[in-house]
What we know:
Blueprint: H1 3-30, H2 37-41, H3 44-58, H4 63-89, H5 109-117, E1 129-130, E2 133-134, H6 135-156
Antiparallel strand pairs: 1-2
Amino acid sequence: MNVIKYQKSLKLILFLSIFALVSAYFIQYVLGHQPCNLCLFERLPYLSSIIIILSCFYFKKFEKISLILLSLIFFFATILSFYHFGIEQGFIKESLVCNLSVGDNFINPEELLKSLKEKPTSCKDVTFRLFGLSLATINIFVSLIVSVITLKLFLDYEKNK
């Protein structure tokens, strides 16, 4: 691996992260599919990877740390997506994470009625599919692949510098 391959890999991951976030917001705001709480949490690794990669391009001496951070972030993103997939398939019960918006501290009856009309999206309900797969399922594969790529870049870093 040379510097060009390293730069291309980071640019590819940066593009993938931006594409994933833009797609998620497009599905939410343009197509009108409401995300559940886990879907919202699954966006965080992509946002953090954008910040890390851009800072990596600016601060060259933290490249190795950035690679291990990216690998860990996407490894945990894989676990989070697999957890979400398990809830969708009924293998795992919904947890409090899925019901964060439900509260009992209403100030007046109007707010209570408004909250009852706005049914929160359950983590087990799949509101959008692509090629027959839920976005959580697709995210398992994407996160795992990016995690392996960044781990490989980290392990090969010393050999090629």
